């Protein structure tokens, strides 16, 4: 049977106290709604419908590329009303899975179980919470069969004592939603059309409602304010840190690592405190990452060491390299094996060959550098003439003295030697020494200016 997912994401999220629509707030570097869409996609549904309202345009633009069906709910009249907006787009014969854009960590496994349970009747995902305040409570009859969900605001004191809650997530045959949803009314405290009311209408009609229970409450925790968002973030990061440690990674402190994407590690990797990993990061065997590093879409080869305070973005580092402390590898940087990039060095679109060294205070951009090159402190590739970018080529074994400026386009041949303090504007051939600096003059018998009286 075909599966259609409806994700509710129209609410304002006023308790976030933010101008950003709630479902665009980031959890582990990814919008809340993206987490939900990703889980939904793992079920390979026929279609994913997203009901948007507040900030609809903004939400849509973030996901513009994806194959999603957008449905606008102009007025947020309740969760039942939201699903009703999506219903015309859903075939009678399919199974519908309703997810919430603000419940990001629900696992595909439990959703699969829920969908399987909803073959002929609705199935609701519930959870038993220590503190159920605010949630809709699940009411059962004497035999334990599902009867209804009562919202916290509508519940009596004894109903509020129930700790089994509605997670909001449910699956149902589309035909049942088509049959019962239009009859849901808004005669309740909040004057909203409540989605769970379709379940009590079904029960009243003799259709039993199945329930599945989420064992891990984190999976069904909603984000309504910044506090809940931060709790979810820490919990998710804790899980990721634990998974890394289970896989053999040594973390200086599992509470001080943030993975906002995917981090793949070889054997005997060590990660010191306060590192942030974003996008796709791959660390080879024996890699060591110093404290306070940021790595985004980066690959680090076997046995390399990234020292404290380094920032790598869209960069790849070979094996047995040494980077930092305080290095910045910008997009397009590629370090060959055993290369070294030291403190206060910035690189961009730079191929730095095997064993080459740029150890101190340099800018190397748009540069093709061979193997065994030594670049002295304070060297700058002048890659930009104000209009265009140009390339600097440095051959194998070349030596660039300190404080050289290499005005691109320019080429230093293999084993070329650039004297310290030179400004190089013309090519240097293989094995040549280039000296491009003002001649030193020494003036003898010179006296320093004395202090004038006026001062
Ligand atoms: C809802 C449930 C409650 C459950 C809780 C679990 C109802 C009536 N209540 O309450 O039983 O325990 O979730 O977290 O279903 N939304 C729309 N359009 C609307 C209203 C809401 O798209 O008109 C979306 C929101 O953006 C949100 C989701 O539906 O993603 C839930 O809405 P929210 O107002 O947060 O419901 P709760 O009060 O949390
Ligand atoms: Ca909510």
Give me a quick take on this structure.
Helices cover 16% and strands 32% of the residues. It is an alpha/beta fold and 455 residues long.
Q: How are the strands ordered across the major sheet?
A: 12-14-16-19-22-25-27-29-32-35-37
Low-confidence blocks of residues: none
- Helix vs. strand class: alpha/beta
Strand content: 25-35%
Overall number of strands: 37
Radius of gyration: 31 Å
CATH level-4 homologous superfamily of the largest domain: Spore Coat Polysaccharide Biosynthesis Protein SpsA, Chain A
Fraction of residues in H or I helices: 10-25%
Distance between the termini: 94 Å
| Helix count from the secondary structure assignment | 8
What is the average per-residue confidence, as pLDDT, rounded to a whole number? 96
CATH fold call of the largest domain: Spore Coat Polysaccharide Biosynthesis Protein SpsA, Chain A
Which ligands are bound?
A: uridine-diphosphate-N-acetylglucosamine, calcium ion
- The CATH class of the largest domain is identified as Alpha Beta
Number of domains: 2
Task: Supply the CATH architecture of the largest domain.
Answer: Alpha-Beta Complex
Largest sheet: 11 strands, parallel
Shape assignment: elongated
Structure description:
Helices cover 16% and strands 32% of the residues. By secondary structure, the chain is an alpha/beta fold. It has two domains: 3-220, Alpha-Beta Complex (Spore Coat Polysaccharide Biosynthesis Protein SpsA, Chain A), CATH 3.90.550; 226-434, Hexapeptide repeat proteins (UDP N-Acetylglucosamine Acyltransferase, domain 1). The strands form six sheets. The chain has an eleven-stranded parallel β-sheet, with helices on one face. A hairpin with a 5-residue loop joins strand 8 and strand 9 (146-150). The radius of gyration is 31 Å and the shape is elongated. The mean pLDDT is 96. Calcium ion (CA) binds at residues 102, 222, 224.
């Amino acid at each position: 049977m075909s599966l259609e997912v409806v994700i509710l994401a129209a609410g304002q999220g006023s308790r976030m106290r933010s101008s950003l629509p709630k479902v665009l707030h980031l959890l582990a570097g990814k919008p809340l709604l993206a987490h939900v869409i990703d889980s939904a996609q793992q079920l390979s549904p026929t279609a994913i419908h997203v009901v948007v309202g507040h900030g609809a345009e903004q939400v849509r633009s973030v996901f513009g590329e994806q194959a999603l069906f957008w449905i606008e709910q102009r007025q947020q009249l309740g969760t039942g009303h939201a699903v009703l907006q999506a219903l015309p787009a859903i075939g009678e014969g399919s199974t519908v899975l309703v997810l919430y854009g603000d419940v990001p960590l629900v696992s595909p496994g439990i959703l699969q179980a829920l969908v399987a349970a909803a073959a002929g009747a609705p199935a609701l995902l519930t959870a038993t919470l220590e503190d159920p305040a605010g949630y809709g409570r699940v009411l059962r009859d004497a035999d334990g069969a599902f009867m209804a969900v009562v919202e916290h605001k509508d519940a009596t004191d004894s109903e509020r004592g129930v700790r089994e809650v509605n997670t909001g997530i449910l699956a149902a045959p589309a035909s049942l939603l088509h049959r019962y949803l239009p009859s849901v009314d808004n005669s309740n405290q909040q004057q909203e059309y409540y989605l769970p009311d379709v379940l009590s209408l079904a029960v009243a009609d003799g259709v039993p409602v199945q329930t599945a229970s989420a064992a891990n409450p984190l999976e069904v925790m909603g984000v309504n304010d910044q506090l809940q968002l931060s709790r979810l973030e820490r919990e998710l990061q804790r899980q990721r840190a634990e998974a890394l440690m289970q896989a053999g990674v040594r973390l200086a402190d599992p509470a001080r690592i943030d993975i906002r994407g995917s981090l793949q590690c070889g054997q005997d990797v060590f990660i010191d405190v306060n590192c942030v990993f974003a996008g796709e990061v791959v660390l080879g065997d024996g890699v060591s990452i110093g404290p306070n590093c940021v790595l985004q879409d980066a690959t680090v080869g076997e046995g390399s060491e990234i020292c404290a305070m380094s920032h790598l973005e869209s960069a790849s580092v070979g094996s047995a390299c040494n980077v930092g402390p305080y290095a910045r590898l910008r997009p397009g940087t590629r370090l060959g094996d055993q290369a070294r990039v030291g403190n206060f060095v910035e690189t961009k679109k730079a191929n730095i060959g095997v064993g080459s060294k740029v150890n101190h205070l340099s800018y190397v951009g748009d540069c093709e550098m061979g193997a065994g090159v030594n670049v002295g402190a304070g060297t700058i590739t002048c890659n930009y003439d104000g209009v265009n970018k140009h390339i600097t080529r440095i051959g194998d074994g070349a030596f660039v003295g300190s404080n050289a400026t290499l005005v691109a386009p320019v080429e230093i041949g293999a084993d070329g030697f650039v004297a310290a303090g030179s400004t190089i504007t013309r090519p240097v051939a293989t094995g040549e020494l280039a000296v491009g600096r003002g001649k030193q003059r020494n003036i003898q018998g010179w006296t320093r200016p004395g202090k004038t009286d006026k001062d």
